[in-house]
Design a protein that fits this description.
The chain is of the alpha+beta class and 456 residues long. The protein has 19 helices and 18 strands. About 2% of the residues have low confidence.
Length: 456
């Protein structure tokens, strides 16, 4: 006899359930039950149907926008030629002569959305500071309309950089349009529509934050979201948008966000969970013509750069060096996979491995670094080259000795060279091998370096 285990969650005779969180078993809340139902496929709020005259639920303007968006994404002509009701039925938004909740979210009018999704709305804030805003827009448009309107609001404060190449002029915005669109679609598609909270867009002078109610599900977190298998919170909604080619099933939206920023020499987005809210943050950075040109040249040579490689190049350009474990965390890869990526990049003469006091680390090949950097591109231009740093530190140490002052701390060297703490430690270690006169005094945070040329 074979007895199969029951389906979780497991309960006691009173109907109470617990769930393991870390090392502890904690009471299962309604939100947790709902998340389990979503992951197992037992619950899809957007697949529920609503009885009534379908035409009374629809927004003609939303339907027109949907068709235009689908046409831009090269949706099948046979789909686009259908009547409105046949079009929605083909998208699985009408079932058994009743419209689904997903149908309302995609093509419903505001009255219907307010009635059947009373907590659904979006808010755009143009922030002047962390506490003050100069413009606020609130609405409850269907998703395609909402995304279009929010893009327009962001576009008004998303300046363009023009790059001239021969007879052609290429325009790049501070925040790539494709990254913003993917983040907005992701926020609306993965919203928990049971929660009465808005999809919130905060547009600061130096960043954009896009957040939605509904935390991560299905084992996804901020440390694995880049490569995790997709776990849709609202399968019916996503399936319909998929048929219009506005989203994809392969979790490529996150990768597209990363790529859109990285190919322009900008930092990838920051994605984090706070309570039951997920927030995507884009940091405003200047466009790097040299980085973009390097990526394009690699593509033309048949050596296209993947997201992992772009993450590594951008990080090493900005921070000069990185250990394998750090790069693995940035790329959200395990150590064996990241080593394979790093060794292949080394074979392509993009990066090189170095070692100091038995500790290996990676840096860009000098020729690659030179290609990626132009004057004013990144903060590294403010960092001293090695020989200049040596001269500056040696002169400071000797000057301190002449004046009878204490030596130089790690912090003071960082201020002079613009190196980070780890880089200063390695730099001083190398410098002390060349100049034994450099001694260390004190311990921990109170330690400092002196010049001692007394003969023993």
């Amino acid at each position: 006899m074979q007895i199969h285990p029951g389906m979780p969650p497991y309960t006691d005779t009173a109907g109470n359930a617990t769930i393991r969180i870390g090392k502890d078993c904690q009471p299962m809340t309604g939100t947790m039950r709902r998340k389990i139902g979503v992951v197992t496929g037992d619950s899809d709020y957007t697949a529920e149907t609503i009885s009534g005259n379908i035409s009374n639920f629809l927004s003609p303007s939303a339907l027109e926008i949907i068709r235009n968006l689908a046409r831009k994404e090269n949706a099948p002509d046979a789909l686009l030629r259908l009547s409105d009701l046949d079009f929605l039925e083909k998208l699985d938004l009408i079932k058994g002569k009743e419209i689904t909740r997903a149908g309302l979210l995609i093509a419903g009018n505001k009255v219907s959305l307010l009635q059947y999704f009373p907590g659904f709305n979006w808010t755009y804030l143009k922030m002047d500071s962390d506490t003050k805003y100069s413009n606020r827009v609130d609405d409850n448009d269907p998703i395609p309309v909402a995304v279009t309107r929010i893009e327009e609001l962001i576009l008004a404060h998303n300046p363009i950089t023009t790059l001239e190449q021969g007879l052609f002029h290429f325009e790049y915005r501070a925040y790539p349009v494709i990254a913003i669109r993917e983040a907005l679609l992701n926020a609306f598609c993965h919203t928990d529509f049971h929660v009465r909270a808005p999809i919130l867009i905060k547009h600061f002078p130096d960043r954009i934050e896009i957040s939605n109610p509904g935390g991560f599900i299905g084992g996804i977190n901020s440390s694995n979201i880049l490569h995790h298998q997709p776990v849709p919170r609202n399968p019916a909604l996503i399936n319909s948008l998929l048929k219009m080619r506005l989203v994809n099933r392969s979790n490529l939206g996150i990768s597209r966000m990363y790529e859109a920023l990285l190919i322009e020499g900008k930092e990838p987005p920051m994605i984090h969970e706070s309570g039951d809210t997920v927030c995507v943050t884009f940091i405003r950075r200047e466009f790097s013509p040299s980085f973009r040109a390097f990526v394009e040249q690699s593509n033309q040579k048949g050596r296209s750069l993947g997201v992992d490689e772009l993450i590594i190049l951008e990080f090493l350009l900005r921070h000069r060096e990185g250990e394998t474990t750090k790069l693995a965390a940035l790329c959200q890869r395990d150590e064996s996979r990241i080593k394979d990526i790093l060794f292949k990049m080394e074979e392509r003469l993009l990066i090189e491995e170095k070692e100091l006091e038995g500790k290996p680390f990676w840096t860009l090949k000098p020729s690659v670094r030179q290609q990626l950097l132009v004057s004013g591109d990144l903060n590294q231009d403010q960092q001293m080259d090695l020989e200049s740093a040596k001269t500056a530190v040696l002169n400071t140490l000797k000057k301190k000795l002449e004046l009878g002052e204490e030596g130089v701390t790690n912090k003071e060297i960082r201020e002079v060279t613009s190196y980070n703490r780890q880089q200063v430690t390695r730099f001083i270690s190398q410098l002390r091998k060349e100049y034994p006169q450099i001694k260390i005094k004190g311990q921990g945070a109170g330690s400092y370096y002196i010049w001692d040329d007394k003969k023993k």
